[in-house]
Design brief:
about 80 residues, 2 strands, mainly alpha
Length: about 80
Amino acid sequence: MSTPFFSSAEEVETAFYDALARADLDAMMAVWSEDDEPVCIHPGGPRLHGMPAIRDAWQQLFAGGPRLRIKLSELLVQE
């Protein structure tokens, strides 16, 4: 599977929330940059460093399949 190309932060954000809503691990991992040492902090969770730890956390979260309904509101874009 090839890594998608995102041309804007908005495209990445849309892909992130789509993957989250569908509990799609491959789609979720496609939004993470592998250029630097990535960090992820889930609400109430520990700080995760590196792709293996981030992938494992999402895999655990998605284990039960899609469970989240997400509705974004009051979006604010800062440039």
